[in-house]
């Protein structure tokens, strides 16, 4: 396999040099050029035809968002956004991921940049305006049962979760989500989901009761999200080391939901690189829970869903637009003799 060709776009020569040094340590990556602003970058993309572009959020002459829109409209290319770990930087990065950026990293923590670049090179990018259709809104009269829904996602998860949750009614089943995302980004993402979706979406806090009509998003980078409490379930944030290289980890969430709810749970694994969540989803299925995996055609990166499918953890594999309605239907089913 030939090396992944990368173009670095950032107005700071210092940051460009740092990114180049990090990427150059990986023999499977070749930095083919640098650009200090979108005007230079536009010409460099035409001349160098990179496999992946790293793009600064804030730049002169044209914002990173404006330039990303042009890339995705005129020459769809895998893009990784490089942002400061501020509230404003996080909010802009979430917007970029909605537009079509594959992933984001926070300055100056580039420890996983090489893996993200290689995953981005394999990602499916679509022209702007040609993204997966939003799932249909659930009609009024939806009645959830006592089931709980657990969702895991990573690369491509912003678009996937927006698509899935857009179908949810105000009284959706209690929903827990672990999305791999840098620290501080999940606050902005939860607020974005809350504005765009009918249920209440919040970043999970330790001890919060798990209730219908609420969606709880694991805080990025800080702790693992678990469900505990038996008949009166609540969120628990566990400050432990990474699992499968991630904190929060999808496997940790799925394992806790499996232990607390057994067959009264529904598990969903969405787009993402790696295998986090596969073992936890397998345990959920073996305990009688219903499980769904995103199919390859609609996954930005068919890593986590593939790992779960190959392990036998996925009961049904569905395109993204069908996952939300299917999960809601499963969560409306009452189970006889449920534990």
TrEMBL record:
<keyword id="KW-0145">Chemotaxis</keyword>
<dbReference type="Pfam" id="PF01339">
    <property type="entry name" value="CheB_methylest"/>
</dbReference>
<dbReference type="GO" id="GO:0000156">
    <property type="term" value="F:phosphorelay response regulator activity"/>
</dbReference>
<dbReference type="InterPro" id="IPR035909">
    <property type="entry name" value="CheB_C"/>
</dbReference>
<dbReference type="InterPro" id="IPR001789">
    <property type="entry name" value="Sig_transdc_resp-reg_receiver"/>
</dbReference>
<keyword id="KW-0963">Cytoplasm</keyword>
<dbReference type="InterPro" id="IPR011006">
    <property type="entry name" value="CheY-like_superfamily"/>
</dbReference>
<dbReference type="InterPro" id="IPR008248">
    <property type="entry name" value="CheB-like"/>
</dbReference>
<dbReference type="GO" id="GO:0008984">
    <property type="term" value="F:protein-glutamate methylesterase activity"/>
</dbReference>
<keyword id="KW-0378">Hydrolase</keyword>
<feature type="active site">
    <location>
        <position position="154"/>
    </location>
</feature>
<protein>
    <recommendedName>
        <fullName>Protein-glutamate methylesterase/protein-glutamine glutaminase</fullName>
        <ecNumber>3.1.1.61</ecNumber>
        <ecNumber>3.5.1.44</ecNumber>
    </recommendedName>
</protein>
<feature type="domain" description="CheB-type methylesterase">
    <location>
        <begin position="142"/>
        <end position="328"/>
    </location>
</feature>
<dbReference type="Pfam" id="PF00072">
    <property type="entry name" value="Response_reg"/>
</dbReference>
<keyword id="KW-0597">Phosphoprotein</keyword>
<dbReference type="GO" id="GO:0050568">
    <property type="term" value="F:protein-glutamine glutaminase activity"/>
</dbReference>
<dbReference type="GO" id="GO:0006935">
    <property type="term" value="P:chemotaxis"/>
</dbReference>
<feature type="modified residue" description="4-aspartylphosphate">
    <location>
        <position position="56"/>
    </location>
</feature>
<dbReference type="InterPro" id="IPR000673">
    <property type="entry name" value="Sig_transdc_resp-reg_Me-estase"/>
</dbReference>
<feature type="active site">
    <location>
        <position position="180"/>
    </location>
</feature>
<dbReference type="GO" id="GO:0005737">
    <property type="term" value="C:cytoplasm"/>
</dbReference>
<feature type="active site">
    <location>
        <position position="276"/>
    </location>
</feature>
<comment type="similarity">
    <text>Belongs to the CheB family.</text>
</comment>
<comment type="function">
    <text>Involved in chemotaxis. Part of a chemotaxis signal transduction system that modulates chemotaxis in response to various stimuli. Catalyzes the demethylation of specific methylglutamate residues introduced into the chemoreceptors (methyl-accepting chemotaxis proteins or MCP) by CheR. Also mediates the irreversible deamidation of specific glutamine residues to glutamic acid.</text>
</comment>
<feature type="domain" description="Response regulatory">
    <location>
        <begin position="5"/>
        <end position="122"/>
    </location>
</feature>
